[in-house]
Amino acid sequence: MTITLPEVEPHLSEDEAEAAFGALLDGTIEDAEVARFLVALSDRGETADEIAGAARALRARMLPIDAPPNAIDVCGTGGDGHHTLNVSTAVSLVVAACGVPVAKHGNRAASSKAGAADTLEVLGLDMEKAGRTADKTLGEIGICFLFASNHHPAMRRIQPIRKAIGQRTIFNLMGPLANPARVGKQLIGIARPAYVPIYAGALARLGTGRSMIVSGDEGLDELSLAGGNEIAEVLGNDFEMHRVDAAQAGLAHAPVEAIRGGDAVHNAAALRALLLGTPGPYRDAVLFNAAAALQIAGEVSGWEEGVEEAAEAIDKGLAKALLDCWIATVN
């Protein structure tokens, strides 16, 4: 039976969105109807209820793994167009080296030249094996990579439609809210500062232990050194808005161009140098975002303390040792 999706005006309730996306993910909607619906939602602007309902539908169809209760995810929605070096990947290694288990949810590059998986692969990690052994490495060494394609089989029929649409849709927002490890703590970067409270509202509806939604003023999907940043701190079913800049973390401001990336080989070389202690804006961007993640995890109480702990994990070689151990364990 073919089902017709509802019109996007008026706004959908959370239950209506969950039902619509459940049908969409189950393949009971014609492709042209799916495309019409997604584009209409994107053009109008998704609400917190719609994002939460869609994420619930995706969560209900994912293949989960078990994770330590204090596990965290660090990721961005992508699509910011800045093509920066792999900040969240480096942050994941640094935070895990500080003793916080990281269930990294992601995929290969979609709009950028090098996604997390592409860069880690050049560094020597067999990504297919890393995906298959995610629960093992998370439990044994405190880090894993959760390939979205491995855990969200319902997304397979959606991918060609998204590619044909050629623009951001609600699926860019749903992914980070459906981590297969069901983490209760997250650092999520989004590329639209004005959307931070809307996205935080969606996560609050879903519930979380403690998470941060962040966006650089220039539309960066992570904390930016360039200027100010919008932050929503989500606690349980509520959230508070804040502003932060690099100076509050004891770091120097730097333009986005200072951390411009390239292909996977270029980004892997930069990440390798970072883990060996090379100073500069890339290191500072990683320290800034790692400080946020360490606060979420309850490891530190403030920005400068977080920067210090993250820097220590790099300078003592702990983050590099973790990557080496991950490669050896998987390969």
TrEMBL record:
Q: Write down how the cofactor binds this protein.
A: Binds 2 magnesium ions per monomer.
The protein's required cofactor(s) are namely: Mg(2+)
Q: Where are the transmembrane segments?
A: none
The record lists the catalysed reaction(s) as: N-(5-phospho-beta-D-ribosyl)anthranilate + diphosphate = 5-phospho-alpha-D-ribose 1-diphosphate + anthranilate
Binding positions for 5-phospho-alpha-D-ribose 1-diphosphate per the UniProt entry: 76, 79-80, 84, 86-89, 104-112, 116
- Fetch the SUPFAM superfamilies from UniProt: Nucleoside phosphorylase/phosphoribosyltransferase catalytic domain, Nucleoside phosphorylase/phosphoribosyltransferase N-terminal domain
The cross-references to HAMAP family, in alphabetical order and at most eight, read: TrpD
- Quote the function comment for this protein: Catalyzes the transfer of the phosphoribosyl group of 5-phosphorylribose-1-pyrophosphate (PRPP) to anthranilate to yield N-(5'-phosphoribosyl)-anthranilate (PRA).
| Subunit record text | Homodimer.
Against PANTHER family, the record matches this protein to:
ANTHRANILATE PHOSPHORIBOSYLTRANSFERASE (PTHR43285:SF2)
Provide the protein name.
Anthranilate phosphoribosyltransferase
Q: Which organism is it from?
A: Novosphingobium tardum
Q: Which gene encodes it?
A: trpD
